[in-house]
Amino acid sequence: MKLRLPFRLFPDNLKHFGLIWVINMTVPVYFLLQLPFREAWIGYVAVAILALAFRQGLWNTDRRFAYALIQITSVAVLGYLYNPSFLYFGFYCIMAVGMLPTVRKVAFSVAYMVIAFVLVMYLFYEKAGEAVHLDFIPSLIILAVLPFAMNSHRKAEELRKQLRYANDEIERLIKNEERQRIARDLHDTLGHTLSLITLKGELVERLIPHDPERAVREAKDIQTTSRTVLKQVRELISDMRSVHLADELRHAGRILSSAGIGFETAGDAERLRTTPVVMNILSMCLREAVTNVVKHSRAKRCKVELIENAGTYVLKVHDDGIGIDGAGSKLGQAGSGLLGMKERLSLIEGTLEFSKREETGTALTITVPNVVKRQQTEGNR
Hints:
It comes from Paenibacillus ehimensis. By secondary structure, this protein is α+β, with helices and mostly antiparallel strands. It folds into 3 domains: 124 residues; 68 residues, Single alpha-helices involved in coiled-coils or other helix-helix interfaces, CATH 1.20.5.1930; 136 residues, 2-Layer Sandwich (Heat Shock Protein 90), CATH 3.30.565. It has 12 helices and 5 strands. The chain has a 5-stranded mixed sheet with strand order 1-2-3-5-4, with helices on one face. A hairpin with a 2-residue loop joins strand 2 and strand 3. Helix 7 packs antiparallel against helix 8 and helix 9 runs parallel beside helix 10.
């Protein structure tokens, strides 16, 4: 069964432009209404064809070249039969021309438009017995240049999208490789040792009734082995690629700036001293929070604040947007991000609080323990 999509007059990214174009189309219609129908009917047909070709040229990529030529022809007919001022509607033709896939098609369409419009002006004023007016020449030059600029901008935007996709794919592959490396390290480092502890534990259970002294020695071996495992785990964690919060803040500033969102920071992240695990989790939570701001908040400004309290670090991400509960279908995506942040923070006894107010926007508060300070305080005791 073929899925029927709802009818839309214009693409979403051109909706406002399309409405403005529809309003401007009342100008030739109003002019034609002043004429007898036997003189104006060709103009009505040309306007209808122009409107249909304009709309279809925005949607149908395969036949966009044909629709662009049809638009140019319709404008030329209006200019020749009624008034050369209608040639200014060529500015609407360049939308489809600029969206053509190749420079060759753009060049052909521009050449066709320039020749047709110049011929229309010459024939119209020749028919009226007047000298050709040259006041349209600057506009004609702009009409000839704009499609190339639009085509270049469109191709640059496509390249940027491809680059973003490639970067996302590279990041995904790096993450997968990192997961596989960690899995291999855990298996190679801990697998044998944990199996040994299990076997020694079963041996101790069997030796307790018959040979208590040997059972004690084996139990001590288990303690020594477990300390070795703990040391190996700490070394493995310290070898993992650590992301400092200060670097993540700079990355967040670039992301927000590229999205047109003002960025402000408070607190000195460079002085943050904590374990690599806490630092990584805090940085990943900041990245997820900034991603939610860019994707769902529609904010104009975002502030990240780092506060050091007694035994804890507090990271606040505040924006002046609508919040994820105002983002409609995006709620599930942002909600899953918050759930992932809570799961990460639970590993280090951290907490996450989320609040939204209509007047002040959305605030995300992340609290993590300052493990280094706790250890120093306990050592002083």
